[in-house]
Structure formats: structure tokens, C-alpha cells
Design brief:
The chain is of the alpha/beta class. The chain has a single domain, classed as Alpha-Beta Barrel (TIM Barrel). The protein is 49% helix and 16% strand. It is built from eleven helices and eight strands. The chain is globular, with a radius of gyration of 17 Å. It starts with 5 loop residues before the first strand and ends with a helix. The structure holds 1-deoxy-D-xylulose-5-phosphate and ligand LD2JLWAY. The site of 1-deoxy-D-xylulose-5-phosphate has 12 residues, from loops. 1-deoxy-D-xylulose-5-phosphate binds next to loops. Its EC number is 2.6.99.2. Its main location: cytoplasm. Keywords: Cytoplasm, Pyridoxine biosynthesis, Transferase.
């Protein structure tokens, strides 16, 4: 099952740089256009409740500027549901959100939050939006995703990335094994597995080599690299590493 692994580029942190000065530059829409031109498979944007990077009008402009599928990352709230229904992204990835966190620290507790998630997941699905759940790679969370009838899960690769940064090879290998095993299980359950968070040129290949994974979403590192080499070159290089891994 080693189909071409899709690359969704998360452009949140182009907006972070823009917002540092409160103006219009750099525009995440321009980033989305570059991703489309260079052969990226999708745009990911996380409309945080505090609007620290992507803002509501960015979604509208991104939708208008490119035909690439938009994967909207969102908290499971009525406010975000209404925004998703208004903008009709290709996919909505439900993520956990804490106002005070620096970034998304862990996976969504799809098991513990079933009753809160179900109406949101099902209304998105009823409106033709492909729902993904951003979860830890665990059997419990996969079973919860199955109960919620989510067609897609995205495994949070943050722990894998942190283990690598800490130089803890055992933990890194354990995390990788866990993501690989849960990717296999997801396929057995008929759920399409994706992965993302904290992926870089250095750590992407073992993840990209997991044959069951259909998509990676990568953002912060690519935007950081783009400062040095440009977004086009950064996306091309990531694409090349992903292709080499398969
Ligand atoms: C859910 C997720 O992993 C992304 O949203 C990504 O981390 C970029 O957004 P933040 O840096 O705001 O978490
Ligand atoms: N869902 C993960 C994502 O979109 C990108 O995460 P990161 O590469 O910005 O850490």
C-alpha cells in the first residue's frame, strides 16, 4: 500500500510573522499560492480560538486563491463549527486547544470526549467535510475515532520529534513503532491515517516510510527553512525526502 504520500503544508507561521507587525506582510495567501505552484498536495491552516496566527479572513482568501484542498484545523466548538460550515474546507481536523499552550501539546482525547465531539464530527460530515481527528497513536483513541465514524485520523508526531531532539534514540524508536503499528490498525479499521507535528528534514524519513500513512502535515519547520532558502525550495526538499523514503 505504498501510494504517493501527500504533503499538506501548514502555513500558520507565515501568519505568525505577519501578525508580529500587525500588517499584511508576509501574506499566508502568497504562501498557499507558492505551495500550489510547487506541487504541494494541500494547505493546512489552524484557526486558533485566540487567532494568534491564521485569521478568519485568511481562510476566505486562501479558499479563493487556490484550488488545493484546505485542511482546516479547529477546536471542537460551536464557533469553529459555524466557521467550518461557512468556509467549506475539504477537510476539518479536530485538534485539542489550550489557550495558554505554545503549540498543540498532545492529541485529542476522542475517547473521553465522545459526547462533546459526536455532534460536531457528524455535522461536519453531514455537510460534506472530511473529518480528521488529531490523536495520539493509541488503540483506545483509534477505537474512539471508529465510534465517531471519523474517516481520517492524524497521529500527533510531537513525542517522536521531541525524543529525537533530546537524542533519546530508544524513545524515538518506540514512538516510531507505535505510530507504525497504529497506522496499520487504522487501515484495518478502514480509517485513513495521516501524521504531523514537529516534522523536519532530519526526522521525516522514518515516518514517511510507514507505508500505511497517506498524508503528512508539516508547517513550522518549513516556514523556518523558508527564511533561509525560500518556501519553494523548502517544500521541494521535503517532498524529495518523503519520496526517497518510499
Ligand atoms: C495541530 C497542529 O499541530 C498545528 O496546528 C501546528 O502545530 C501549528 O499550529 P500551532 O503552532 O499554533 O500549534
Ligand atoms: N497537524 C500538524 C501540522 O499541521 C503541522 O505541525 P508543525 O509542522 O507546524 O509542527
Amino acid at each position: 500500500m505504498s501510494e504517493r504520500l501527500r504533503l499538506g503544508v501548514n502555513i500558520d507561521h507565515v501568519a505568525t510573522i505577519r501578525n508580529a507587525r500587525g500588517g499584511d506582510h508576509p501574506d499566508p495567501v502568497r504562501a498557499a499560492e507558492i505551495v500550489a505552484a510547487v506541487g504541494g498536495d494541500g494547505i493546512t491552516a489552524h484557526l486558533r480560538e485566540d487567532r494568534r496566527h491564521i485569521r478568519d479572513d485568511d481562510l476566505k482568501r486562501i479558499r479563493a486563491a487556490t484550488d488545493l484542498p484546505l485542511n482546516l484545523e479547529m477546536a471542537a466548538t460551536e464557533e469553529m463549527l459555524a466557521i467550518a460550515l461557512a468556509h467549506q474546507p475539504h477537510a476539518a481536523c479536530i485538534v485539542p486547544e489550550k489557550r495558554e499552550e505554545r503549540t498543540t501539546e498532545g492529541g485529542l482525547d476522542a475517547a473521553g470526549l465522545h459526547n462533546q465531539l459526536a455532534p460536531i464530527v457528524w455535522r461536519l460530515a453531514d455537510n460534506g467535510i472530511r473529518v480528521s481527528l488529531f490523536i495520539e497513536a493509541s488503540e483506545r483513541q483509534l477505537e474512539a475515532a471508529e465510534r465517531l465514524r471519523a474517516p481520517v485520523v492524524e497521529f500527533h508526531t510531537g513525542e517522536y520529534a521531541h525524543a529525537g531532539l533530546d537524542g533519546d534514540r530508544d524513545r524515538e524508536a518506540k514512538e516510531l513503532d507505535r505510530i507504525a503499528a497504529m497506522s496499520r490498525l487504522a487501515r484495518e479499521m478502514g480509517i485513513e491515517p495521516h501524521a504531523g507535528h514537529g516534522l523536519t528534514y532530519d526526522n521525516v524519513k522514518p515516518i514517511a516510510a510507514i507505508p500505511e500513512l497517506a498524508e503528512l502535515n508539516i508547517g513550522h519547520y518549513l516556514v523556518g527553512e523558508a527564511v533561509f532558502v525560500g518556501l519553494e525550495a523548502a517544500v521541494r526538499r521535503m517532498r524529495q525526502l518523503m519520496d526517497e523514503a518510499r
